């Protein structure tokens, strides 16, 4: 019962892990069981030092075909900057360019990867650089997952399966496994994987059935029939070989790429005397339903393929119930299984064209020592459906079923990875990792709990026409790249596989058959089967019956306990999810209210702005229409006020004017009345005095008004006179101004004249000086015998002495004098 208790405890631990994902700072030691084998302790060494490593994401860029090159698909959309960095550049005319014309950063996006493989990389180099280490780890007992992802026509199949001449990573992984276990293969298929981490021991009948079903599976392959002769020949040869020679049989059966000589260094040699058994399974997840690809497709289209359930074992490890596991003895056999699965996959696709799915190929490796299974490890390769196909594949009803319920696998995968990344951020947060939302994430929850290794291969197509899809794929991969995987210490209980009977109860303990466990197994069988219970009753052993009874009670109690725990866990998860949903809802409603408020404010201010603009526009239009006749509103209002004031004053004045008349009239009337009606004398005299006073006042006011009127008239006439004078003065000023202008013009003219004359004078003076100099020279020459003057000299003499020239000089002097006088005047 110790084992049962430990399992329950671990189940609770897993439950916690599930709701909060893994806590990288969780150091609490997990329960251990005593008496573990050497393999288990070897594993515990690595357990003690958890290894943190980033989820490795590899990028492979597909080679462009000749056809694509002629279609000008190579527009440099994918630029490999370094072995880790790639730059995506939107091609001309793409949607990205159009939508981000203003934002250059949208046109060029950079992504980093663990490693980038150039288009020309060989399949062998790609395998060596990516998952080879994971395959090695499989042989050391570690579970791992490889996710192959990419857009349509991006080379996913080429990367995963390749061709017979140039195989992809999956055939190479199978080959590597068989190469490494070469010579240490467990040839019998009597130890079979059961549930998630357990082993079922097959009896002779089961073994026969297993072998015949494998035969049937292989015979379903068309090509197997074609090569039967060759295989039977090889098999007969192999049977005649000794055991050591038969180790290389798998290689001799393999096609050329698999026939390389066995590398001894590659073999597992850890000093532990154990052998290995390899089992494979191939299944697909389509529309959240799991289908076994090793089960033949139904013959008729109307018949549906049976779907399988995903369950969890007692330790909380998920597994596909009733999945077919096939024992393979060579890489060639494993490849055949792959081909059978592919065939069924294609058949399913043909029957339903939209039926595209995520397919998973799993290798389970059993490490056997004697009759004891020492360890079991798993290596899965998942081929994810391309994002475009994913959306195309979903019809309306499927979309409602899948998308409407938030069951889009890629979205969930993204959510799980994001939650895992958040949890690994600073360790303070613990987001809920929703791996149960999809079958795929549930099946590989070990990865999300940080127990198992994982890597991702991203395939991209560098064609310009595939740019948008490539960008989406890269964005998805960008989430995964940031995840740091933290390998949690595992309980040794979970590491040690258990040999179980048909009922799933462990039959082995520390390598020897546990009689008690076998008894328990039988008893449980009886518990579950009423008919068998009747058989027990005929057994003579009373003790056995009482033991059975007590075990039944205990089993019931345990089941109830498990159920309560499950309910509690579910409730806790439900509460957390509800809380998160409510928080999200509250946050969203608050955001919506804020947005509404701000939008309303913006709308009001915009409305006011438009109102003002409209008013201004109307005003401008009115001004333009009215032209000179336009009177501003303010002026018009002021004018109206003035008119009102004048009217009021007019009324007052009229009243003022009427009152005295009425008064005098009243006086007169009263005087008449005094004559006619009998009044008291004192009253009459007071009234008379008052009226007289009023009359006097009225006369004084009238006189004052008259005077003022005269004054106004005289002032007005004065103003008129002054205006006239001003007008006259203005006119004379204008005249004077015109005269001044005229004078200025004439002065300017005179000045021009003077300047001209001055320049003439200067010229003449220069001429005169030259003549004088000439004269002096001539007079100097004339000291000698006088010679008759000729030409110019004779003329100069005449010019100097002639009276006409003397008068010219005088005129010149006069004009100079006049000029200087005029200058003085101005
Ligand atoms: N690295 C490569 N080198 C050369 N050719 C390649 C490479 N990768 C893919 N191809 C070729 O490109 C074509 C498409 O590849 P593949 O069928 O593997 O794409 P896919 O992503 O699986 O397509 P699908 O969308 O149908 O799933 C094939 O003709 C394949 O041979």
TrEMBL record:
Q: What positions belong to coiled-coil segments?
A: 705-781
* Region annotated Disordered, chain positions: 657-685
Keywords from UniProt, A to Z, are: ATP-binding, Coiled coil, Cytoplasm, Cytoskeleton, Motor protein, Nucleotide-binding, Phosphoprotein
Q: Name one GO biological process term.
A: spindle elongation
Q: Name one GO cellular component term.
A: nucleus
Query: Could you say which residues bind ATP here?
Result: 150-157
What name does this protein carry? Kinesin-like protein KIF20A
Q: Write down the species.
A: Chanos chanos (Milkfish)
Lineage, highest ranks first = Eukaryota, Metazoa, Chordata, Craniata, Vertebrata
